[in-house]
Amino acid sequence: TGNQGSQEGYGVLNLRGSLGIGENVELAMFAKNVNNAEYNTFVLDVVSAFGYTLGYRGYPRTWGGEITVRF
Fold it and tell me: What's the whole-model pTM score?
């Protein structure tokens, strides 16, 4: 069998934009993995010992907002 832990190259696009309101408040929007790339962040090839490959997938597309208030 081939290398069970290999993967193709990939790119992840993250975006963030913010707007300052006055001196102490900032509103921001963000999006992570905008292109929804599928990738592994960790792979452990244990096929010879246990018969499978253990891997952790990267985060899917996520988005959200932030409000920052400075005192």
Answer: 0.71
